[in-house]
Amino acid sequence: MKLLYILTPLAPLFGAIACGFFGRKLGRTNSHRVAIAGVAVAFLFSLIALIVQMGDDAKVFNETIYTWMVSGGIKFEVGFLVDRLTVVMMTVVTSVSLMVHIYTIGYMHDDPGYQRFFSYISLFTFAMLMLVMANNFMQLFFGWEAVGLVSYLLIGFWYKKPTAIFANLKAFLVNRVGDFGFLLGIAAVLVYMGSLNYTEVFAAAPAVVGQSMEVIPGVAWSVMTVTCICLFIGAMGKSAQIPLHVWLPDSMEGPTPISALIHAATMVTAGIFMVARMSPLFELSETALSFVLIIGSLTALLMGLIGIVQNDIKRVVAYSTLSQLGYMTVALGASAYGAAIFHLMTHAFFKALLFLAAGSVIIALHHEQDIRKMGGLKKYMPVTYWTSLIGTLALIGFPGFSGFFSKDAIIEAVHHSQITGASFAYVCVLLGVFITAYYSFRMFFLVFHGETRMDDHTRDHCHEPPRVVTVPLILLAIPSVILGAMTIGPMLFGGFFGDAIQVAPEHDVLAELGAGYHGAFQFVLHGFKTPALYLALAGAVAAWFIHLQKPGIATWFAEKFSVVHRILDNKYGFDAFNEKVFAGGARQVADRLWKVGDVKLIDGLMVNGTANGIGLISNIVRTLQTGYLFHYAFAMIVGLLALLSVFIFSA
Amino acid sequence: MLCAICAILLCDLYSKDGRRLTYILSQVALVGTLFFTWGVTPDGSATAFGGSFVMDTMSSVLKSWILIVSIGVLLYSRDYVLEREITTGEYYTLALSGVLGMMIMVSSSTMLTLYLGLELLSLSLYAMAALNRKDVRCAEAAMKYFVLGALASGLLLYGISMIYGATGSLVFSEIAAAMAADSSSSAAVFGLAFVVAGIAFKFGAAPFHMWVPDVYDGAPTSVTLYISAAPKMAAFALAIRFLVDGLGTAHDSWQGMLVILALLSIVLGNLIAIAQVSIKRMLAYSTISHVGFILLGVLSGQAEGYSASMFYAITYALTSMAAFGVILVMDRNGVDIHLLTDLRGLFRRNPVYAFVMLIVMVSMAGVPPTVGFYAKFVVLDAVVSVGLIWLAVVAVVFSVVGAFYYLRVIKYMFFDDPIEAQPVLAPIDVSAGLAVNGAALLMLGLFPGWIMAACIAAFS
Amino acid sequence: MEFKLFLFWVVSLILVGAAVGVITTRNPVQAALFLVLAFFNSAIIWMLMEAEFLSITLVLVYVGAVMVLFLFVVMMLDINLSPLREGFTRYLPLGGLVAALIVGEIVLLISNKWFSAENFPVPAARPADYSNTEELGVAMYTDYLLQFEIAAVILLVAIIAAIALTMRRRPDTKYQRPAEQVQVRKEDRLRIVSMDSGNQESQ
Asked: Whose C-alpha in A70, A555, B86, B354 is 20 to 30 A from the C-alpha of A537?
């Protein structure tokens, strides 16, 4: 079993190395074969691990594979913790990754960086697996950073495109902010709990609850709260929560498979996964939970609103991802970790589906991404149409589709939660449902229904893309429909996660829900009694009405409420604010620092000064090497004299 | 221990000619000896020849690495030697006898055996340095090396005689017992000063380092490769046998001496290296600074420090081997590369070698995750654990200074345009060797555990 | 006993004097002869310590072989070493200072009580039939067999090295190869050239 766990992340790594270093020799076909084989192996092993862990008497695998170094009592090691939470993540990551790999064959077909791309996405899979399988903070952080690095490389994959470079820089910088918080959190864990190993940290955590620290003198903060919030800031960066969400929409500059891989299945969910993994810590601080809850609900609502006014097909999906991530965060805040992971899983499939469908549309339209220039594609691309419909229905939470179960579970969980901010969050997520439905169907209708708005040339060439593109779509559509109904029972209410997720009894909203749960079908029926479903339907109908029946309404609205429209269009000014205040301010400060500090002090005095000084000394000392034999011998004798003197004066 | 004789017998074969054959036979001899070493490794420690030959974990680990490194060295230098018309048969014979000398040094348990092993090694090295008779600089370097080496041997021998006089024994364990019984025997410690001087010369530690740059620069590159790699491990064994096995109780006395040597080596080595324009001289000074690090571990006087130093010595030998290996393959067509600027644009000419060199430079500069970082880290850890924090700080500062000239090499290789566009090519086995060597540096940085475990086992 | 002590002092003084002579005299032949003198005196000191075999070996090997060889070389090459010594006076102050310091430190250490005579009891006198040579031989071939063998290897390496460094094939040296001379055939030496018999000049 151990070998299997080790091989799981190594298989994609092998693929990455093979494609990266020997890609040119392997050629295109062999490259993608190797990469896909690696990921397929990982997927297979994940499935085996899943089946093994699903067994009733399955033991949690927690072992240190390798100790890199021990310094001052802190161990830096590589170890795997495989429990049910991990296997769920592993399966999600590898299966979506496999689909994306296959899809890439079609999407990147003509790209010169074909092998490089496969190398990156395989590497990404490896990093992500290391992240989810970690049994200590060190490795988690390694995976975390590696994922960040590869996403940076991937967003800027088309490095000749200035917007892509800007976007990857932005993603990198914003993530650094989050990582800084994350690192502080890890440092706090290390300082107060004395270890980096999960098991040890969790065991030591309850002892820390009462303690407080003074970051600013005189102000005492609970250690637990500070630690958790720091860790969560890291999650905010990766999982794109307000206000660190700004990088995600821009990252759509990368190739579409990447958007699917990063945004749907994996990277953005790293934060969610991390918080779920840290549930024993978060449970100890109610303040931190409230913080998580409020951030999540704000993200869920506000990002959905922006989605309404976007016209780029990928950006719409991106904002919907942001909003869904908000839902997951809300679930975390309400201590419904199971629901968060459940939504993460279902969302991974239907969002990957939507992204790949969007990509399929983009291929068909020769890389046209503006939905205003689409329309009526239903008859040209039936497979894409139907799979998109499934994805959209799943996204809005139509009863029976996977999204319905997970989203409804979250809403119900929030409804039951007693934590501070829960009522606010409840309102937000309910409104979010309406908005989700609205923008999803807006996009859907604009793309596939109505009159065709593209030019004639494009329309003539518009056809269903090759099978490597459509097969993943179909394969992803299946779990989008049935996964929720199949797994909701065990995953949410069946104690599936066991000890992997710990919830304090007073927070355990899922248990309350579970008390009223009588099977998936009942849950669907119950769904008809909740406002969420009607809000979703209302959203869909509104979208249909406004965008298909009376297209004028949207324009009218945009004109009448231009302020609102402009606010949304400017994404609440986050970008502008960042641009002006942070970037601008920083640039000014940096400018000053550069002129005074850098050029004069550091460059002039310290760097050049030191370099010159050292160069000078170096040149002087160098003349000692005269080349005369007797000088050398003399130096040796003097050295001997020195050694003798040391001895005499020390004795 | 029979492996020694095995090597001698094969040695004799080479006096005859046949270039290709000699090479193959040498390699066979080395590989055979390697297996032999593994085969006869006892569980504990065993002695032979009336207690003058010892076989323990340290000796077998070091022997294995000496042999592995020597195999690599001969592989890299094969074509060079052929091209330069250096008398091939003698080259391999001398190289093998040098290896034999090192192996004797590593597993000697009396001062006499140690000294003789050292002389065997040194003699081979002097002769090898002089092998390229057409070159005046080569002869000059060999001459300097020989005279200074003789002086150092004299110092060492004088120290040995003082220690013998004071303790009445040549065997390290008996010396240690005598020292423990009479710790105030200043005559022994007096001899110690001379011994340390001799050891420092063999290491090439400042201020006994003067021969290093001239010899590195003057000798044929293949010989430089040989000198820079395996003998460092032998010198480490020399230091450990004398200072720890023999005079461990006088630790207080030699610690001070080693502090001076290590400090001077690190400071001078790194400082002077910056001003060098010749790549071989630069690497020579960098060697001096690395030797300082090896001494740092030894001077801690603790098992962790010794194993850290051993790790450092082994990995440094590997690193240095890769560095000179790349220089050797670039020495095509009879033109030695001499200046740092000759490395320009290596990336365009052969990316594999450029990457190997990149790893080497990064490792020497001590950047994670390469092995150089880990080696420096364990050594510094040992130094800090005995409370010499200031020493560790100085070492770190100067290794940062040193990073400058390593980075300069990288800049030349990757960002400058090549002077000549023709690609650098080498036979496939040499390329494969270099690639494995470079990869090993990286992998050992990530997985240093098994060598480190062997090093720790050697001192427990 | 008294005479032996007296002899020791006399011989030691000559030895030190000769050693100084080796490095101060300008004539290389004289220096070599001073060295011979020094060897003789140290041989006498060994003889005083009843190490007959070693002292005779010293005379035979060093005086008889090494120094004679050295004198041959000096005379054959006829180098005037005096210019090399010009720096001698220039470096004397500094060199002298360092030498004096080292000597001072050594004296400081040796005058330590540890080196006083009572720590070194006079070894018991050997019986009359004691053979120094035999003892040496036994020690060398039993206890120190390994060292002896290594020393042999060192000599072997020295021979190889010396040959490798000095033996050279000079392509420009002219020498006869009798075997080839004997085997020579007519075709090797004689070339028959067919020439036009016509007179091209006239055309």
From this structure: A555
